[in-house]
Structure formats: C-alpha cells, structure tokens
Fold:
Amino acid sequence: MTFLAIKNISKHYGPVHALDNIDLSVAAGSRTAIVGPSGSGKTTLLRIIAGFEIPDAGQVVLEGETLADGTDAVPAHRRGIGIVSQDGALFPHLSVAENIGFGMERGAHDREQRIKGLIDMVELDRGMLDRRPHQLSGGQQQRVALARALGRKPRLMLLDEPFSALDTGLRENMRKAVARVLQIAGITTILVTHDQAEALSFADQVAVLRDGKLVQAGTPQTLYLNPRDRETAAFLGDAILLPADLGDGSSTCALGTIPVDSDGRSGRAEIMLRPEQLRLSTIEGEGTGLACVGKVTDIEFGGAVCTVTVVLSSANGSETLNIKSSGVGLPEIGSMVSVTVLGKAHVFEKPGS
Ligand SMILES: Nc1ncnc2c1ncn2[C@@H]1O[C@H](COP(=O)(O)OP(=O)(O)OP(=O)(O)O)[C@@H](O)[C@H]1O
Ligand SMILES: [Mg+2]
Structure:
C-alpha cells in the first residue's frame, strides 16, 4: 500500500533546477534510501516532504492526505513528520535532556524515563543529559537530534545523513539500532546517505537522484545487479565494465564467453560485472591452454578486501581489471593468474549508455 506518494515534484532555486519532475512511492512501514551525488537534490526533496520548502509544482500525499499541491501546502508542524537534518540543528539554549524531550507532552508521567531510554538507544552516556549542544561533538549532536526526532513518535521519519559524523563501528551499530526502533514502532522512514553500503543494507527501496532527476528506484538487489546506466552502477559499488559482443544470451569479451542477463540483445555493447563475481587462482608457468589468464601488475592492500590489478592478454589486445580479493593467499606481483567469472554479466538498458 502506498503510504507516501511524491508526484511530479519540481523545484527551482533561481536558475538551479534542484528537482525535476520527481515521482516516488513509499510503502507503509518500509525503509527507503535516497542516494545521489552532492547537489543532486536529496535534501531539497526531504525538506519538501517535511514542509520546510514549497515545491513549484507537484503533490505530496501522505496516507491519502494532500500535504502539498504546488505552492498550496500544509505547514510543517501539522504534518506529523520527523526530520533529522544534515547538521542536527539542536536548540542551543536547551540541555540535551530538554532537546530530547522537546515535543513530548510536558506533564507525561513517563517523560524522564522515555528521555533516558532514547539517550541509551543512541548510545550516549546519561551523564550528558545536562550538557548543552555546544559541549558535544558533531557525532554526539547528530545522535541527540535522532533521539529528539524519535521522541516525537512521527508517522514518517526523514533522516538526512544522520550517521555521517560517526566512525565505522558506531555507524553500523547506530544504523541497526535505529532500524530496529523504527521497525518496532512501525515508522516509515526515508534515509538520505552518501554511503552505498548503508543504503543497500538499510533499505527496502533505493532511489537514485542525479541532477535533480530520479534515475532509478527499486530494491537494493535490483539496483546493484541491474543498474540502468554505468553512472548508477558506479554509484552503488565498484563495477567492472567491458566492451563485448552479444548474442544468444551470452557475451564474448576479454574474459571469454560469459552468460548475460538480457537474452534479446545482440551486437556490440558494454557489460558490467561486480568485482565479487571474479575469482582469481594462482597458476604455475604461463597457463597456456587456460581460458582466461592474466598477469598481476599491482596489489592494493585494503585489510579484509584487497584490490589486485590483472592485465589480461588476448588476441584482441590487453584489458586491465581491478579484482577484489581476500587478503589471505594473495598472489604476488608479476605472477600469472587465471580469472573465473561467477553468474551473469549485466547489459545496460540503454545501448551505449
Ligand atoms: N536555499 C537554496 N537556495 C539556492 N539554491 C539552493 C538552495 N538549497 C539548495 N540549493 C541548490 O539546489 C541543488 C540541490 O541541493 P540539495 O541540498 O538538495 O543537494 P543534496 O543532494 O542534498 O547535496 P549534498 O549531498 O551535498 O547534501 C544544489 O545545486 C544547491 O546548491
Ligand atoms: Mg544534502
């Protein structure tokens, strides 16, 4: 069921076309991640949903209620929507406890208990409740802002990069804790993030914005494995792009003949593989007779996942690949390896895109 419908939303700031005819549906109780390069319109879209910005055209409909129809809009405080903005935006003159309790009923008997529960949830020390926002780090302020937004029990929660100031371990913990709380409370959520792994793991639906346009929306799996174009592919993870000849549901490229996910196409095209689809094995000697052999020219150590640069030589010339590999049993620079492909290669929807 559609909980939130964004219909043909457009917004200009002077000559800047911040949003261009955006259509997006969000299901009740679901989690949507919005990703896109800096300046692509992510914050503008959240602010229009929240009611802090008025669209030039288009509608925002929440649970069947029209919140914005062109410039005719319901004020932000009547929408029941929580937003954690990119900068946290706490009230500087209020303590942490007062910030978190802002919006809860003053006389509620469980107010203090709820404030404590929320500060625990965002993994901050209860000793911080009496501090002022300027006495906290940026990441701590973001977490207080999150606790404050959750304390108001919104029907829709908008999160604009709420974890960006946190380090990796804490970021992951927070993401899981927040996802759990939102799920238990049944709060539909839209998260803006620059972090592709965060978008793919947090969301039921990922929407990609570019230059104010919605390029593609779908499940994380669909976007990761079937991106519409090479920019979207690169945005959601590392992509290996190779020129290929298509025909009969397979492609012939520098890696040999591999199956593709589009049977109908033939002729020249660019195919995409994700790095984890390639497996390296060290071979003795020159590997004559093996299907796909290359020479290791560089290794970038990256902890759990390392990048091995392999130059493949074939009759059609050479092709350089950056292949992800476990840090255990890495080949040596200068050694010969064979490359095996797992699964199918993806063919982009638009030929030549
Ligand atoms: N109040 C404003 N006045 C003028 N231009 C604006 C205003 N707000 C946003 N813009 C412009 O609109 C475009 C979209 O901005 P927006 O803040 O939505 O991007 P974003 O995708 O959130 O970027 P980031 O990832 O850097 O936060 C940008 O070109 C920006 O400069
Ligand atoms: Mg932004």
In short: The mean pLDDT is 90. The chain has two domains: 2-230, 238-347. Residues 234 and 328 are 26 Å apart (CA to CA).
